[in-house]
Write a structure and sequence with these properties.
The structure is a homodimer of 249-residue chains. Chain A has helices at residues 20-28, 36-39, 58-70, 88-98, 116-124, 144-156, 174-183; strands at 4-9, 31-35, 49-53, 74-79, 107-110, 125-126, 132-136, 160-164, 191-196, 204-209, 222-226, 232-234, 237-239. The first copy, chain A, has 249 residues and is an alpha/beta fold. Chain A has two domains: 4-114, Cobalt-precorrin-4 Transmethylase, domain 1, CATH 3.40.1010.10; 117-239, Methyltransferase, Cobalt-precorrin-4 Transmethylase, Domain 2 (2-Layer Sandwich).
C-alpha cells in the first residue's frame, strides 16, 4: 500500500499566506478532498482529481479520503486556515478511530497553516499578545452549556478570547449570547474586534468595545477577538501588552 | 517619511513553513532587526543591514526598529513562529505607545505566521481539535499567581492547554509546578505531549500522560500540550475530537 494522506490548511485565503510545504503537498497529490470553496483556492493541475463536498459532512469526507489513500492514491485533505484548529484534521483521526483497521497503518501527515485568529490579529495589531483562548461558538458538536462554561472561565481568568464560528444563518443568536455572558464579567470598555475575511484582500475590521459590540455585524467569515483587561488601543492599532504590569513611561 | 516597519514570524523553523508574504517582506527590507537565532534563518542579501540582539531586550529592539523606520528605512522585525503570539508584535506596539509621537503615523504592518503550537500539534495529529488555550509559563512579565489562576481556569473548563516557554535555564521549576496544579483538576491519564523543535527536521515528540509527565524533559525549544478530557490516542496519533459526544461506532 503506497498511498498517503496529508491534511493541509490553505491559510486564511490569500495565496501568499499558504506555506510552501502545503503548496508542495498540493502539487504532488493525485486526489484533493475538501469543502468546495477551499478547493477553489487551489490552482487546477492536469490529472488531479477533485472531490468537492458540502460543509458539515466532515466525517464522510474524511472516510472518502482514507479509502482513497488505502487504495494507493496520494490524497490531500484541504481545510482553510490551519487544519488542526476547528477544521479537518480532527475529523480525519475520528474517522481512523471508528474506521477500518488497515487505516491505522496508513501514511498520514498534518501540515500546519496560518489559522484565522492569527490573520485577524495581524490585521489590527497584536491583540493576542498575552495568554489567550480559542473557542468555537458552534454548538453543533458540543452543548451550549459547555460553551458558556468556557466563556465564563476564560473571562474570569482574564484571557484574550478568540471566537471562531461566531454566527451563521442557522445559528444567528450565539454571538449575542456570548457577549451577554462576557459583559457580566469583563468591563464594558474591553476592546472587541470583529474581523471579516482576515488575511484576504477583502479584510474588514470593526474595532469596538464589549459594551457597544453589535453581534449582527458578524457572519460565517468573521473572527471575533475580545480583549483582556490590559488590551488597549494605540493609534489605529489594538494590542495586548506582554506584561500585566504595563509601564506608560 | 517613506520608511516602513513590518513585523514577521519565520514560522517554527523550516523554510517550508515560512509564508510567501513573509519571504517577500524579508526580500524587500533594507534592515532586519531581531534576536540572533531568528535572523540566522533568513538567507543573507547584499546591502541588507542586520541588527541582531540578545533575547530578553524586546523593547529596545522594537525602539531601534521604529527609529530606523522613522529615518526612512524599510525595516522588518523578525520573530520566530507568529509575531503576534508571545513574540515581537506586542513589544513593537508597546514601544509605539511609550515612544515618540511621530511613531504613531508610521507605516506598520504585521504578517501572520505559523506559531509553535500549530506545528507541535501537526507533529502528533490533532490535539488542538477542540477549544484550547495558550499560556506562557514565563513569569518574567506577569506574576506566577496569574499563571496559576489561568491554569486552573483552563483545566476546570476542560480546555486543551498549550504551554509556551515551559522551561529555561533561569526558570527550571515552572513546568513542574504547572503539572502539579493541573493534576489536582485533570485526570492522571490525560494525554500530555512534549514536542521539541516542532516544525524543524529535528522534531522530537514525547507522548505521555499527566500522571507520568516528567517536566525535566522540556527545555526552551519545547512546546507542551496538555489534553482535554476527550483527547485520546489512535494508533500513533493523538487528537481531540471535535465533539464532546464522541461516538465510537
Amino acid at each position: 500500500m503506497s498511498g498517503s494522506l496529508v491534511v493541509v490548511g490553505t491559510g486564511p485565503g490569500k495565496a501568499e499566506l499558504m506555506t510552501p510545504a502545503t503548496q508542495v503537498a498540493l502539487a504532488h497529490a493525485t486526489d484533493l478532498v475538501g469543502y468546495g470553496p477551499y478547493l477553489d483556492r487551489v490552482p487546477p493541475r492536469d490529472g488531479q482529481r477533485r472531490h468537492a463536498s458540502d460543509n458539515r459532512v466532515e466525517l464522510e469526507r474524511a472516510r472518502l479520503a482514507l479509502s482513497l489513500a488505502a487504495a494507493g492514491r496520494r490524497v490531500v485533505v484541504v481545510s482553510g486556515g490551519d487544519p488542526g484548529v476547528f477544521a479537518m484534521a480532527a475529523a480525519v483521526f475520528e474517522a481512523v478511530e471508528s474506521g477500518e483497521a488497515q487505516w491505522r497503518s496508513l501514511d498520514i501527515r498534518v501540515e500546519p497553516g496560518v489559522t484565522a485568529m492569527l490573520a485577524a490579529a495581524a490585521e489590527v495589531g497584536a491583540p493576542l499578545g498575552g495568554d489567550f483562548c480559542a473557542i468555537s461558538l458552534s454548538d453543533n458538536l458540543k452543548s451550549w452549556t459547555t460553551v458558556e462554561r468556557r466563556l465564563k472561565a476564560a473571562a474570569e481568568a482574564d484571557f484574550v478570547i478568540a471566537l471562531y464560528n461566531p454566527a451563521s444563518k442557522a445559528r444567528p443568536t450565539q454571538l449575542g449570547r456570548a457577549f451577554e455572558i462576557l459583559r457580566t464579567i469583563k468591563a464594558a470598555e474591553t476592546p472587541v474586534l470583529l474581523v471579516r475575511a482576515a488575511g484576504t484582500s477583502e479584510a474588514k475590521v470593526i474595532a469596538t468595545t464589549l459594551g457597544a459590540a453589535d453581534p449582527s455585524r458578524a457572519d460565517m467569515r468573521t473572527l471575533v477577538i475580545v480583549g483582556a483587561s490590559t488590551t488597549r488601543q494605540v493609534g489605529r492599532w489594538v494590542y495586548t501588552p506582554r506584561s500585566e504590569r504595563v509601564s506608560r513611561s
